Amino acid sequence: MANQHGDFIWYELLTTEADAAARFYGAVIGWQNRPAEGSNLDYRIFRINGTDVAGFMKLPAGAENAGMRPCWLGYIGVRDVDATAADVVRAGGVQHMPPTDIPGVGRFAMLADPQGVVFYVMRGTMEGTSTSFAPTRPGHCHWNELATSDQAAALAFYAGLFGWEKGDAMPMGAQGDYRFITHRGQTIGAVMNRMPDAPPPAWNFYFGVEDIDVAAKAVSDNGGAIHYGPAEVPGGVHIIVASDPQGAMFGVVGPRRAAP
Fold this sequence. Notes:
This is Glyoxalase. The chain has helices at 18-29, 81-90, 151-162, 212-221; strands at residues 8-15, 32-35, 44-48, 51-58, 71-77, 94-102, 106-112, 118-124, 141-148, 165-171, 177-183, 186-193, 202-208, 225-233, 237-243, 249-254. The protein is an alpha+beta fold.
């Protein structure tokens, strides 16, 4: 089935060291990489088993001076980029990059929700269906998790834009509920309140691996840092929350094949 309005369709790493990022994620997740055809931005593609799953590039000139740091961002597919960007601004969000065409690829915009969390929207022109988000495939994104300063407002904002719905919730004590979000009958992630001493509000994306302990060791052996885990989560899999050597936060999810 073709991607629909509100689907996560792509993930992108903005980094200070593209070559180092290629080596790191190759070791941790098993991604290969290639240059993007026709790009004049030195844009590169992460792929696995012959399928493109994410992109990466150096932070744009001036971005660091403006306060932007290495990070992962998600692209959400929409019917109309211009209309969605206008809706975001009307709902209290911010337009960081206006609707822009990428020849042969599609039209996109960089936006932020009212709590300051940055994301992209995009309408692609390329044929085929994105499988960047594919919870059963190693090397693809399995989970989209938003840590925010206002859970109720964030849920209302994204539901209004993309038709996402609130699913079940897991109580997390003083932190409140860990609220699942569903789209077209599929659980795609969750929204939670950000801890007071945690990084600023942001999306965190969990990429699938075949062995969580192998991935965790690769993070540490290749200059990254593990901030949480490996820890078991519902479904019998384990997660880690980590940062790469340039400081971009990301998650990994997979089974524990043997006792550590």
